Structure formats: C-alpha cells, structure tokens
UniProtKB/TrEMBL annotation:
InterPro entries: AB_hydrolase, AB_hydrolase_1, AB_hydrolase_fold. Transmembrane segments: none annotated. This is Pimeloyl-ACP methyl ester carboxylesterase. PANTHER family: AB HYDROLASE-1 DOMAIN-CONTAINING PROTEIN (PTHR43433:SF5), HYDROLASE, ALPHA/BETA FOLD FAMILY PROTEIN (PTHR43433). Pfam families: Abhydrolase_1. The lineage of its organism: Bacteria, Pseudomonadati, Pseudomonadota, Alphaproteobacteria, Hyphomicrobiales. Coiled coil: none annotated. It comes from the Bacteria. Residues 26-247 form the AB hydrolase-1 domain.
C-alpha cells in the first residue's frame, strides 16, 4: 500500500483511491465537498499504526464525474464501501470532513456491522436534508450554471450572502469564491447543487442507537459547519467525545494540528492500535 492512487471504475466514473499505510487499524476517511486527498492528508494523522483509505468522490480531486445522476451522499457512500470491498477491508473506522462526515454517518447507519468507530470533523449536516448552512453552495451552483464564470463570481461577491460571510466566516467565503475558478466548474456545480439539497439520510433515533466509539470535532467562525451542528451530533450519539478546535479562519496551521492531535488521541485511546481484523 502506498500514497499513490489506484483507479476504481464505478458505473462509468473513474475514481481515484488512495490506500495509505500498512498499520493494523483500517480507517476510511473522506474529504469535504470540493475537496480531495490533499485535504484529507492535512487533517488526518497518518502514521504506522493506521491503514487509511480515501476515495476522491465523483467530479472531485482527480476522479471523473461519470454519467449517473443525481449525485448524492448515498452514491458517494456506496462508492466508498465498494472501495473498501475491493481493498479487502471488512471492518473499519469511518470518518471525514464536512461532506465526508455525512458519508461516514450514513455508513454507520446503513452498515453498522462494518463500522468500528466514527470520526466526524466539522460536520455540515446532522439529521436534516438541505440545511440552511448549505444554501450558499446552492446559490453558487446556480450562478455557475446560469452565468459566465467571471460574471457569476462578481455577482456572488457583491451578494448579501458574501457580505455576511466576509464579516463572519472569511475562510468559508474564500472556498465559495474558489468554486468559480475550478477547471470542471460546470459539472461540479451539479455536484454542489445536488449535495447541498441532500443529507446523510440518518435520523436522530438511528444515531442514538450507535454503539461504536465516536469523536465529533467542531469549530467556530464557520457558517457552513456550525458549531451547533457538531454539538447536536455529539449529544445525539451515545458517549460521543467532543472536541472544539481553533477556527481555520484564525490560524490554519494550528487548526489542522489540533484536528490531527484530537483524532490521533481518540484512536489511540479507543483502539490502542489493536488488530481489528
């Protein structure tokens, strides 16, 4: 296993799969909406104790979009499970950032026999589809699909949404403006619109039945990933650990370092690097 990606074909979508490390604890850790394996590497404490699998979701990172529609969290979760099967990984810790956390949540609810633990970093969804905090993604997607990219970016930059984010969550605003500059902006706008209107499809009652060790990580100065959403998930999942880290808008390096430390401590404490096969 190496850091270099393999390619997995799902329908007609060629997906990049990173199978990293040779440790005995298998972890599937997914990126956020518009992210990639580089984002995962910033947030996850890769080390000799872990085997970490990451799938770059359709139309994100180096993965193709394919022709199957609509895009959904369920689709991405199925792709992830197929990658686990192909890699011979039966049981694993499921985790991720934002959309990746929603994918992990869905896997825990739909495939509890395969999940050893959960790591939910900066979750954007709890139990409702199309939460208010995801509306800016739908707004950006609509502008990309209906306007020339430069024009759409200027319209969004002058919008009331952008004005609020500029004051309250500048890091979120930078991400949203960056979507207009993507090479695959048109197809990624389809992804954004679909995912912003979707959800993990997990109820509060289902989360209350989770029996696996869980870590939820939240942060402030973030309108897309409200601290209240992270706390809501931590409160709903029995005995979940909760960690609040330095906002990315305040200090990016410290933000990533604290996330890696929190995940590393959780995995060490709860799994003690035992063979989970």
């Amino acid at each position: 296993m190496s850091a270099g990606p393999a390619t997995m074909l799902r329908d007609d979508a060629a997906l990049r799969v990173f199978d990293t490390g040779q440790g005995r604890l298998p972890i599937i850790f997914q990126h956020g909406l518009g992210g990639d394996a580089i984002q995962v590497a910033q947030n996850f404490p890769d080390g000799p104790s872990y085997r970490r699998l990451t799938v770059e979701c359709r139309a994100q990172g180096g993965s193709g979009a394919g022709t199957t529609r609509p895009f959904s969290i369920a689709m991405f979760a199925d792709d992830v499970l197929a990658a686990a099967d192909a890699a011979g990984i039966d049981r694993f810790v499921a985790g991720g950032i934002s959309m990746g956390a929603a994918i992990a949540l869905r896997l825990a609810a739909r495939h509890p026999d395969r999940i050893l633990g959960l790591v939910l970093v900066r979750p954007a969804w709890a139990f409702d589809a199309a939460p208010q905090n995801m509306l800016p993604y739908a707004e950006v997607a609509e502008l990309i699909r209906s306007r020339q990219l430069d024009e759409g970016r200027d319209i969004f930059a002058a919008s009331a949404t952008a004005a609020r984010f500029r004051t309250e969550a500048p890091d979120n605003l930078a991400s949203l403006l960056g979507f207009f500059a993507r090479d695959n902006a048109a197809v990624f706008a389809e992804v954004m619109q679909s995912i912003a209107n979707d959800g993990p499809g997990v109820t509060r009652a289902e989360a209350a039945g989770f029996k696996t060790p869980t870590l939820v990580i939240g942060t402030g100065i973030d309108l897309v990933h409200p601290l209240a959403t992270a706390r809501s998930l931590a409160d709903a999942i029995p005995n979940a650990a909760f960690a609040e880290v330095t906002p990315k808008a305040t200090d990016k390096e410290r933000h990533f370092a604290e996330i890696r430390a929190a995940i590393g401590s959780f995995l060490e404490d709860r799994f003690n690097n035992q063979d989970q096969s």
